[in-house]
Design a protein that fits this description.
Blueprint lengths: L16 H51 L7 E4 L19 E8 L6 E12 L2 E12 L6
Antiparallel strand pairs: 1-2, 2-3, 3-4
């Protein structure tokens, strides 16, 4: 009743050392490709964290200016704290992100201003920069 199971190569009892090493090499190549994909995704996630936080912070500064148009004046690269802005921002701006606000008169009536919020930070040894630009009318809420 007992029959031997026929193998593909007659007389082979186990895997050879060459077959084990080949399997390990293939496994190593596949695992390295998978790790490369995950490490690239981690870098993208970190970058998007900084960019999202900077965008949200810049948008909140612009909204604060819309609510307080009396703070609009001609300035060049002023920090938000000097202008009395960004104090109510939560959560706190992450360390390493710096902000500057440019406000420039556009018309002769001294009411329309071009406002640019510029944020910068260092990531991966390189300086990253993000700018949000809008127009606001002084003395009125919004445009």
């Amino acid at each position: 009743m007992s029959r031997k199971i026929q193998r593909s190569w007659p007389g082979q009892e186990a895997m050879t050392l060459l077959e084990v090493l080949l399997a390990l090499v293939i496994f190593t190549i596949i695992s390295n490709m998978a790790l490369a994909i995950f490490s690239t995704a981690t870098i993208w996630i970190k970058h998007s964290r900084y960019e999202s936080t900077a965008t949200y912070y810049a948008a909140s500064l612009l909204e604060e200016l819309r609510e307080k148009p009396e703070k609009i004046k001609s300035v060049s690269m002023a920090e938000p704290e000097i202008l009395g802005l960004g104090e109510g921002y939560t959560p706190a701006i992450p360390p390493g992100i710096s902000a500057g606000i440019d406000m420039e008169k556009v018309d002769a009536l001294d009411r329309l201003y071009r406002i640019r919020v510029t944020l910068s930070w260092y990531e991966g040894g390189q300086k990253q920069k993000l700018c949000l630009l809008t127009m606001m009318r002084k003395g009125e809420s919004g445009l």
